[in-house]
Design brief:
The protein is largely without helices or strands and about 100 residues long. It has no helices and four strands.
């Protein structure tokens, strides 16, 4: 589990879970529930929160063949008030692709 690639200051509310979670195209073995069992600090609109204890349980969304992407949360903010900075979070040098907002100048 990692916060990357959504680990910019304005994206710290997304977890990426990578692994082998079933038998692929056979679609006979798959997870039925995912739970956060350790402390994981996320950033929500009202500040930091600990995701420990959060559980997702929806069998249809965990089948490899028949599941799809689901938008579960979205938000908008003023980029002049909540900037994502000028460089990638783990790279200290300025970047030509940051900020990567939809800001109109």
């Amino acid at each position: 589990m990692t916060l990357s690639p959504a680990n910019e200051d304005n994206e710290l509310d997304t977890l990426l879970i990578i692994g082998q979670f079933g038998d692929g195209a056979r679609d006979t073995v798959h997870p039925t529930k995912i739970s956060v069992v350790e402390s994981v600090i996320l950033v929500a609109p009202d500040g930091e929160l600990d995701a420990k204890g959060v559980t997702f349980e929806r069998e249809g969304d965990m089948k490899y063949v028949s599941s799809s992407v689901r938008l579960s949360y979205a938000r908008m903010w003023d980029v002049s008030e909540f900037s994502e900075g000028t460089h990638y979070p783990q790279w200290p040098l300025p970047s030509t692709v940051y900020p990567n907002t939809c800001e109109v100048t």
